[in-house]
Fold these 4 entries.
Entry 1:
Amino acid sequence: MVFRLVAATGCRRDEVCGLKWSAVEIDGTVPRVMIRRGVLDIQRQRIVRDTKNHGGRWVGLDPETAELLRKHRDRSFELGEVAGAPVTADDFVFPRSPGSDEPLPPNRIGQAWRRLCRQLGVEARLHDLRHLQASLLLDAGEAITTVSARLGHRDTSTTLKIYSHLMPGADQRAAGIVGKAFARPPAENSPDA
């Protein structure tokens, strides 16, 4: 579920670790999560802090990811009840261990990702899921402002610096759009008509 959420939202690994149930809206018509905090391990101390750009952002979820997250929530709440430690809205979506009030350490996600990639014979970094988000959106022609907002970049120039190479042919497409706007319909009596 962690990997799916990172791929579906483009959030950073520290941000998925900092996600709390109070920031998850998956039962309404517009499923989304509020990315507002991250988890860092600094000098053997786990710190929960604001996101890298110090701002929160809503990120929409596709229906399948929302359904998987709903199942994860229901299972988490069920396990919490059985263990006598009911899950609350202030609990982390991915706790260090069931019933824990500590977030999952970001390095555990990285370790699990590397194990999974080795098992599958795939060479990919966890951060590549974030790049996948940007690549899919830019390839589909999504506005750079939308991509930048989903990734949590402070401004679009950061997104453009990192991902402009993913927009090959954009200038040629722009030239075609302008050309169509300038094109005149052929006159009825002209030889081209």
Entry 2:
Amino acid sequence: MPISRAVQQNTLAYITRRIRSAHTSTHTMPATPLSEIPTLTLLYKLSKLTPSSTTVSGATPKYNDKISLIRTDITKLQTDAIVNAANESLLGGGGVDGAIHSAAGPDLVRECRTLNGCDTGDAKITNAYDLPCERVIHAVGPVYGPTKRQGIHTQLLNSCYTKSLDLMVVDGCKSIAFSALSTGVYGYPSQEAAETAIKAVKGWLDEDEERAGRVERIVFCSFLQKDERAYEKFIP
């Protein structure tokens, strides 16, 4: 069922209010270094994460020291790169996209203007300017309604994750934090999006062990509880 313009606007307004409220109360909060972002191994050890009661396809502890799960403001993470839930213009918007542009400062949008936009399912990389990370990777996720009907929504979302990982490696980054792509105004159901994201990342790691060895950490960063719970269901 297509997402109405009213629903899109209301969802965007809600997410934007939540993020602005968080920034108002945490704008002086220091950056979170990679060493303070818990791995899955640590989350299991501290009983903050429990194994799924049902068998999840592709579940493996192989990458538990390499993958992290955290619910926080992605603009505070001191990973080498963060992944922005961008739109095709790359010029900023609401929600996480707006928060990243706001925290990075005006130089980010100036650089983005030189990139000539970005296709859905693709990603482009920029400097991070005033953010605590080194790079911002702008990934354009699919709008769920139209791409669902076309049967290409999973392919496009999967591509956002794998192309972002390709860019981080080419740029020499060793750690990356993903926002929950397409789960805001673009209407992608959180559980379906989390399952796709996890499969994409694990598949990318399995594809080339030498390349995977150059990656220190991959962080799934949620801002809303619905996204955090979705990752917790499929991450084990």
Entry 3:
Amino acid sequence: MTTSHVLWLGLFLAVTSGLLLAPLYPTWKEWRHPQDMTALAFPLLPAARGPAPVERVWLTADTPLHQEVEAAHSMVVMPGSHFKKLMAPSILFGIDRPIQNRDSDAMARPSPIEALPQAIHWGANGWRIAGDCRIPAAHQLAGSLVITGHLWIGSDCLIQGDIKVHGDVSVGARTVVSGALISDACIDLQEASAVHGPLLCAGNLTLGDMVVLGQVGKPTSVCADNIFVLGTAMAHGTVHARRTGQLA
């Protein structure tokens, strides 16, 4: 091979190498001297939303059953109505004006319970009872309860804590539970009783006349297999009947 051939071959290899490496120069430069130290900011796209709920909804016995019904302000459920899941700041059953919430801080203080039979300390400020439990009328209990049997709470009581029960629960008239109420069976709330926290029921939930669930400005969740409203009642937040809900 002559000298000229070697020179032309070297020139060809140099040009070819330059053309192949030129596109990689910006990457090599950024690697040696980084300039973009922050991640690219991608604008967040707004989540797709359905139509805004109407301000006020009325359900009657003639309203077709829907899986979900939502109102931005309030919902009125009239006698004979059936429902599945209702969502509104105020859900009124059988009435078109709110029921006065029972304020536990303003209640006349019932007699404090000194001790519960078979109760042992549970957690920081709670009690656990193996078996059934009865709380007599006009008594106050501060602390949470875990009960493996059934629970009966008398009328005009104040329970300042959460309640978890494996069996049935009966809450007497005008009694207030300031926390959550959970049962693995059925719950019966009698006239003018109130539960401020979440209410979860694995069986039937029965609401007597003038029952209040949740508080104004503090929405809660109510869920049960079947929900039966026997008179007027009011809830704030979500009321979900997994099988069926009805207002007598």
Entry 4:
Amino acid sequence: MVPAPLATPQPPYGYRPPPSPAANPFPPVAAAPSGPAKIALLVPLSGPNAGLGNAILDAAQLALFETGGDQLTLVPRDTKGTPAGAADAARSAVGDGAALILGPLLAGEVEAVKPIASDAHVNVIAFSTVTDLAGGNTYLMGFLPRQEVVREVAYARQRGIGRFAALAPNTPYGHLMTDALRDAASSTGATVSKAAFFDPSAGDPSTAIAVLLPSGSTPPSPGPDAPGEAAAPAAAPAPPSPAVPNFDALLLPEGGAQLKQIVRKLSAAGLDSKATRLLGSGLWDEPDIGDEPTLDGGWFAASPPEARRDFEQHYRATYGSEPPRLASLGYDAAALAAALASGKSGPPFSREAILNPNGFSGVDGLFRFTPDGLVQRGLAVLEVEPQGNVVVSPAPTRFQDLGY
């Protein structure tokens, strides 16, 4: 089988044709009579985020090969990770006749691209999660954190949990997640009893933890020795009493080493993670999350893992490296472009086609776009276990079954 014809990018990035086809989450479409449509991919192929940008490009090329996308020509353009670079990339792509823009990745880049694409009447399917950028001709395909919280709270309520709290970084992301927790809890009749924020650059969340947890009991100090009595031997310090929080689940929207440090300090402060359910975010979606015992039993919402696992295997077999988590966005975006090219749900690459209410199914599960330009995803709930995360609430397979 001959790989799909792609635009020949310039060094330092290049097309590496996959050796063989594999599972196909999008149906192949027939080539348009007028020849292949040009689809621009705007990602950072140089600069600090070049590794991720090149992985997204590789995943997009893999998708076009596996979906029989010879009706499309992929036109990669380097945004250099800057708004100015993204604007230049968009002008170049539009000048080359791109019918659809995939990307860019960062919020500032998307903001710079929007007016250029709008003037050219070209729709944009971007990878950002900054919801203010959605609308008009711009659709956001990134993983929206608020939906993760809504999904987790819905499942926790099914399991009888009604009192929540949050320990979050004092950042826009941390406040967004905490606000989402309050909204989701309120809409289901639950409460958020406490929320505490820590400075992620300080390296010590102890002050914020003290806001969440009551102090453990301290043994009384012995009184002064009576005259003529020998001093009593010093007693060994008693371990801290377990903290008894006024919440049943604690949202921790943090990841990596910072997350593991936080849960160790929570445990040292007396929080029993077996009695208080820990809730995560997409930042928990890491293969080594179960290495930290305190996180065992925690829940987080994420894409259903089965299809993504297959994608990761195909990517490794093709390129000989591990795909970063966000590489799957490149695969699904390119495969989506191939599906939109069919014209089955509206003129190719049109708003009508993009807003297909039946949605699409990709390696990150079920998704569709809303009229305000935001993606709606069918998420699973996973439980952290030492041997690997386990799905405790499967992702819906139809939007009628979304339920959150």
